[in-house]
Amino acid sequence: MINAPQTNNASALFSGINANSSSLAKQTANPLADSQSTFLKLLVTQMQNQDPMNPMDNAQMTSQMAQLNTVNGINQLNVTLQAMSNSVTTGQTLQAAALIGHGVLTPGGNLDLANGLATGGLNLAGSASKVQINISDANGNTVRTLAYGAMPTGIQVWQWDGKDDAGNALANGAYSYSVSALQGNASVDVSALEYNVVNGVTPNPKGVSLNVGLNGMVDFAQVQQIF
Questions:
Q1: Which stretches of the chain are assigned E, i.e. beta strand?
Q2: How far apart are CA 121 and CA 129, in angstroms?
Q3: Across the 227 residues of the chain, what is the mean pLDDT of every consecutive 10-residue run?
Q4: Tell me: domain 103-226, CATH 2.60.40.4070, correct?
Q5: Distance CA 186, CA 100 (A)
Q6: What is the pTM of this model?
Q7: N or C end: fewer C-beta atoms under 10 angstroms in the chain?
Q8: Which of 105, 111, 118 is nearest to 198 (CA)?
Q9: Where in the chain are all domains bearing CATH 2.60.40.4070?
């Protein structure tokens, strides 16, 4: 008579298999192959030592094998997706590197006055009959108000000559601005865009960041226009 093993419960054994496989996956360079190998070895061992009067449950064995295949499939899919993500990031880095030395418009309301000239931008959600830009110094004081007439929907570029409302030339440096727009008496959604020159490119886990001076680091996806 053959003595049955101390544990004949297939579910408990398969749970142990999964735990062992999980542990090995963290310790080996090829977790998928080791997990499959461990599962098959333990399965063969169980079959060799099973009680003929109380054999393994085929349904449980099939279920566990299906679960193992599902886990392996998910792991392989994750590897493929990671490879695709790395490829996309590399492509973005190459594209972003070509922007070094070029001017870009990104969300923000900073102005860099240099040699009596500063450039800014805005993005209108709809056409406007009036657009107003208020420029402030580092202390938040309004130094110049620019009034424009009709503008179409989309991105518009504007320039400031570095003078205040009285016509006095102001010192070079950092300024800020806000913008408002009307179509008749109704407000039009408008966002400020700041102009900066790209000084460098930095890859990161989420993509690529650009060093754009006053605005610091911005995501490559935030670039609205390139000059």
A1: 103-107, 110-113, 118-124, 130-136, 142-148, 154-160, 173-183, 186-187, 190-197, 200-204, 207-211, 217-219, 225-226
A2: 17
A3: 38 42 45 65 71 67 69 69 56 74 92 94 97 96 96 96 96 95 96 93 80 81 90
A4: yes
A5: 40
A6: 0.60
A7: N
A8: 105
A9: 103-226
